[in-house]
Structure formats: structure tokens, C-alpha cells
Amino acid sequence: QVQLVESGGGLVQPGGSLKLSCVASGFDFTWAIMTWYRQPPGKERELIATILGGGVVANIADSVKGRFTVSRDNSKNTLYLQMDNLIPDDTAVYYCNHRFDWGQGIQVTVAS
User: Fold this and answer.
1) Which long-range contacts does 27-34 make (Cβ < 8 Å, 24+ apart)?
2) What average pLDDT does the chain have?
3) What's the CA gap between 29 and 16, in Å, rounded?
4) What is the DSSP letter of 13?
5) For residue 54, what pLDDT is reported?
6) CA 9 → CA 42, 52, 72, 88, distances in Å?
7) How does pLDDT run across 29-56, given as a tens digit for each residue?
8) For residue 63, is it left (φ>0), alpha (ψ between -120 and 50) or beta?
């Protein structure tokens, strides 16, 4: 059974940083294409970043380019999203995704 469990969200002031983690199980993580999405309040879910099994970043949204970094540790079956210089528009529920499977989502709120 596939499980994706996100952690690391919370409330942060503008300009601050957070690092999200997603621990995966139930499939071969090493070569899996993994993606972060987010859904801001009242808006559609949007793709943030995709990383291939070898650690190559396949794409990253223009809205977060230069501020967010996606990475993975295959030895820990864990996907990361380092978020720096956060702005209020980054407020959203963030989701980890692999093919048709989703994590439960984790809230990130950027406010002073």
C-alpha cells in the first residue's frame, strides 16, 4: 500500500523559511518521479516541482523559482521541499505526489 506522509509545515513570517518532508513507502522510491503540488485557499491545485529518480529536477514553477528547492534522499525514501523567502502568496496546502497517489497535505501559512 502506497503511503506518502508530509511534515514540516506551519506558520511563518514573510521572508522566512520552511522545509517540507514527504516520507514514502509501498513502492520503489529510488526511481520514482515525485512531485510537489500546492492548493492555495479558493484556488486550483498547482504543480510546484518535479524531481526524477536520479535527483534531476524536471521542472519548477516560475512562481517559486529561485526561492524553492526540491530534493530527495533515496536512502531515506524521503522527498524534500526547501522553501526560502516565503511570501503570503505561498500560503497553501502542500501535497506530495507519486503517480495517482497523494499525501494527506500539509498547511503552510505565511503571515506576519
Assistant:
1) 27/2, 27/98, 29/74, 29/77, 30/74, 32/98, 33/58, 33/98, 33/99, 34/72, 34/79, 34/96, 34/97, 34/98
2) 97
3) 30
4) -
5) 85
6) 19, 23, 17, 14
7) 999 999 999 999 999 999 999 999 888 9
8) alpha
